[in-house]
Design a protein that fits this description.
4 domains, Fumarate Reductase Iron-sulfur Protein, Chain B, domain 2, 9 strands, about 10% strand, single chain
C-alpha cells in the first residue's frame, strides 16, 4: 500500500509505526474471510481491509475522525483473527489502537455514549468500585425488562444489566499482596497478575492458579502496587489512563525482577496477557528508564498455560471420563499465538478435548465490546454457543474471564482451564464439574 505521510507527521512514533504497517498491506483480502463483523454484516468497511483504508485516509490527512470512521472502527472487536490470517504480517493491532486514540482525541461523541465510556473507565479497572457497581446491577437486573425505549443507550444499559451476575463472590484473600511459598523444593518464582474484573467475578481462578503453581514447587508473588493491566482503557482509546495503570504494574514487577528475581509474570486472563506482552511497544518512546523496564516486563509475561507447560504439569487424579469443549479465546489464539498448549494440558490431565466449528471466530466479548456493541455481540454469542452445543461436550473450558462471562447462561457448564488442571492435580472440584458428575450419577 502506498502512503503519503509528511516528514513532520512521521516524526511522531505512532504515525511512523502506522505508516510502516499500512505499507505492509497488499490488499489481498484474506482477512475478510475470518473477520467476525464482515462474516455477520458483509460490509467491506466492517472488514480489516476496509477499516485500514478508512484509518489510512484519516491519519494521512491529519483530520478529525468522521462519524463513518468512528462507526466502523468501533465495530472492530480487536479479536486479531485478521493477523493470524494475514500472509503479509500486517500488525493490525497497533494500527487500530492508534486509530482509537486518534478518535478519542479528535471526535466528539454523543453525551450519553461519552458518559458511558467514562463510567466503564472509572469502574471496571478498579475491583472495589466494580464490586459496588455489581451490587446495584444485581438489583437492577430484575428490572431490566421494564426500562422503556429502544435507543442505543437503553440497549447498552440492558446489556450491562444482563451481564451482571446473579450473585457476587466474596473477596478472596489471595488478591492481597503476599508471597505464596512453594511446596517442597522451590523450582521457580513468579509474579501473578490478579487483574481487576476477574478477581471480582471469579476469584476462584486466581485461587486455583496459586494452589496449582505452589504445589508444583513455584513460589507465587502478588506484588503491592499492581492492578489493572490497562487493556480496557487502551482499547477504548483512553491513552493516558491506560498508560498510568500499565506504568504502576511495570514498576511493581520490576522491583521484584531486580530484587529476588522472577522466572515469569503469570497471567490467567488472556486479554490481559496480550496487553502486558505489548508493554515494550507501548512504552518504547517514553522518556526515562520506563521503556527498558517495560521491555523486561513484557519479555517475562506468560500465559498460565505456558508456565504450566514450562514447569512440567502432571495430574495426580485418575482419568475423570469427561469431555471438554475448548473455547479458544481470541486474545490467546490470535493475540498471543497460543493454540495447542492449553489443549495439550487438558489432554494430559485426562480429558477428551473437542474443538468447536468456527473456533477462530470471536464470541463477542472483546473487553467492553459486549457493552458498547450489544447487538453484534449477541449475534456472535449465539453463533458461538450453537457451535459449542454441537460438540456435545460435558464442559466448556476457556482461558479468559471475558469469554466465560459472555457465554454464561447459555446452557453450558463453563470452567477456566486452570481450574480443571488444578482439580486434576489435587485441587478442589470446580462447582460446574461437580454438577455435571452429579447429574451423570443420577441419570
Amino acid at each position: 500500500m502506498q502512503t503519503s505521510f509528511s516528514e513532520a507527521q512521521l516524526r511522531d512514533p505512532d504515525t511512523a509505526e502506522s505508516n510502516r504497517i499500512l505499507r505492509t498491506c497488499v490488499h489481498c483480502g484474506f482477512c475478510t474471510a475470518t473477520c467476525p463483523t464482515f462474516v455477520l454484516l458483509g460490509d467491506e468497511l466492517d472488514s480489516p481491509r476496509g477499516r485500514i483504508y478508512l484509518i489510512k485516509d484519516m491519519l494521512e490527512n491529519g483530520r478529525p475522525a468522521t462519524p463513518e470512521v468512528v462507526k466502523h472502527v468501533d465495530r472492530c472487536l480487536s479479536c486479531l483473527s485478521c493477523m493470524t490470517t494475514c500472509p503479509s504480517g500486517v500488525h493490525y493491532m497497533h494500527l487500530v489502537d492508534h486509530a482509537r486514540r486518534h478518535i478519542e482525541e479528535t471526535y466528539q461523541r454523543p453525551p450519553a455514549e461519552k458518559a458511558l465510556r467514562r463510567l466503564l473507565s472509572l469502574l471496571l479497572p478498579y475491583p472495589r468500585r466494580f464490586r459496588l457497581a455489581l451490587r446495584g446491577g444485581v438489583l437492577g437486573k430484575r428490572l431490566a425488562g421494564l426500562i422503556p425505549g429502544d435507543n442505543q443507550t437503553v440497549r447498552r444499559l440492558r446489556a450491562m444489566l444482563k451481564l451482571a451476575p446473579d450473585a457476587i463472590p466474596a473477596p478472596s484473600p489471595v488478591e492481597r499482596p503476599a508471597v505464596h511459598r512453594a511446596e517442597g523444593t522451590r523450582r521457580g518464582r513468579v509474579a501473578l497478575l490478579t487483574g481487576c474484573a476477574q478477581q471480582v467475578l471469579a476469584p476462584s481462578i486466581n485461587e486455583a492458579t496459586i494452589r496449582l503453581l505452589t504445589r508444583m514447587g513455584i513460589e507465587v508473588v502478588v506484588t503491592r502496587g499492581q492492578g489493572c493491566c490497562g487493556a480496557l482503557d487502551h482499547h477504548m482509546g483512553h491513552h493516558d489512563p491506560a498508560m498510568r495503570l500499565a506504568r504502576a504494574n511495570i514498576e511493581a514487577w520490576h522491583a521484584e525482577i531486580t530484587g529476588e528475581g522472577l522466572d515469569a509474570i503469570v497471567i490467567n486472563a488472556s486479554g490481559c496477557g496480550t496487553t502486558v506482552k505489548d508493554y515494550g511497544f507501548m512504552f518504547r518512546a517514553e522518556p526515562g528508564d520506563i521503556a527498558g523496564k517495560a521491555a523486561q516486563v513484557a519479555a517475562l509475561a506468560m500465559d498460565v498455560s505456558e508456565v504450566l507447560a514450562k514447569f512440567g504439569y502432571e495430574p495426580t487424579r485418575d482419568n475423570p471420563g469427561l469431555t471438554v469443549a475448548y473455547h479458544a479465546a481470541c486474545s490467546l489464539q490470535h493475540g498471543q499465538m497460543i493454540t495447542g498448549v492449553p489443549k495439550d494440558l487438558l489432554k494430559r490431565a485426562g480429558f477428551a478435548v473437542k474443538e468447536p466449528a468456527e473456533s477462530h471466530l470471536c464470541c463477542g466479548s472483546a473487553g467492553t465490546y459486549n457493552l458498547l456493541q450489544p447487538e453484534i455481540s449477541a449475534r456472535l454469542r449465539e453463533r458461538k454457543l450453537e457451535n459449542l452445543h454441537r460438540t456435545r461436550a460435558d464442559l466448556v473450558a476457556s482461558g479468559n474471564i471475558g469469554c466465560l462471562t459472555q457465554l454464561g447462561g447459555g446452557g453450558l457448564p463453563l470452567v477456566h482451564t486452570v481450574e480443571l488442571l488444578d482439580w486434576m492435580a489435587g485441587g478442589p472440584e470446580p462447582p460446574p464439574v461437580a454438577a455435571v458428575r452429579a447429574a451423570r450419577a443420577a441419570a
